[in-house]
Amino acid sequence: MDDRAFALVKQLRHELHEHPELSNEEHWTKSHLVEFLRRYTALEIVDRGSWFYAVYRSEKEGRRIAFRADYDAIPMEELIDLPYGSKVPGVAHKCGHDGHAASLAGFALEIDRTGSDNSIFFLFQPAEETGEGAVQCTPFIKENDIDEIFAYHNMSGIPCRSIAVIDGTAACASRGMILHFEGAPSHASAPEKGRNPAYAIGKVLCALPDLADTRHTKGLVLCTVIQVAVGERAFGVSAGTGELLLTIRALFEDELDALQSRIEGEALRQAGQYELTVRFSTVDSFPETVNHKESSDKVRDVAREKGYELVELSEPHRGSEDFGYFTKETKGAMFYIGNGEDYPPLHTHAYDFRDELIPIAVAMFKGLAEGQKGSEKASQNDEGHG
Asked: What is the rounded CA–CA span in Å between residue 334 and residue 294?
């Protein structure tokens, strides 16, 4: 990646950072990325409404390889002083999706300049944070006969500019659960005349550690209490409604489903005991993200060829990533590029994407696109920007 391309993409990243948009609201972001690619490349662009992809179509009979980046922000304030800080109150790029999108745009510049023996697809996806974006985009895989798909995420807690990868499950499946209990209010002086859901909710809460016991599971299962809400701030009224919000996660989707069933069963039992009704809903559903070994081995090969430090992850990431929808449809892998062992974690106020990771991502993507073997180590241009 030459200096001019890096400067263009770095500026693009800063512009995306200044104008963050939440999941399914990324109208400016999408338009800005499309405009950038139209201005600086001759790639074909396919607009699919809320998302889009660009294509380099090779004249040779190569493979069809896709690379994906997300571009939504999260609901957090920008509290650090940046010359390109968020201009949108309460919204900021604190997961690095601005950097992911800029990296993919930088890779598009590189392929547009050098060409490829393979046809390369650059998929720009919305709404990763809510688990809704990849579902919208999955028809792309079959429509274009994609042979393999790759993506990366920046990661704090591992050496800066290192490449981390794992075979099999790379990120947990998860979903949000909402348990809504309905009873009947009464005067606070006569609670026996109503049906207060507080006690049923309390018993469900107490049961959660046993329901999420991992002694009888294949892998991690976890239940996190997000919110408990019962009644209103009215001291003369015994509550008649209540909600319990949970996030459940597991290494394997079948065990996630089983955990949800156990929680719902306990809620139904407690609702029956206290003469309540209970209804269930789910939000922010993510699949397990599974790396195909053939694809993750390619990540390893390219990292070694480029001279990057390779980190073998000993366990999957507990967080979730909707990239897993794509690897249900075709071969693929997600890898990680290190921010630094002591770098601020994602989704914290102190975090900002490191621009120096962009050339690393471009070099990795290019190596994966070409399937190079025994190539020379990354040039100073690949490694030295930032």
From this structure: 12
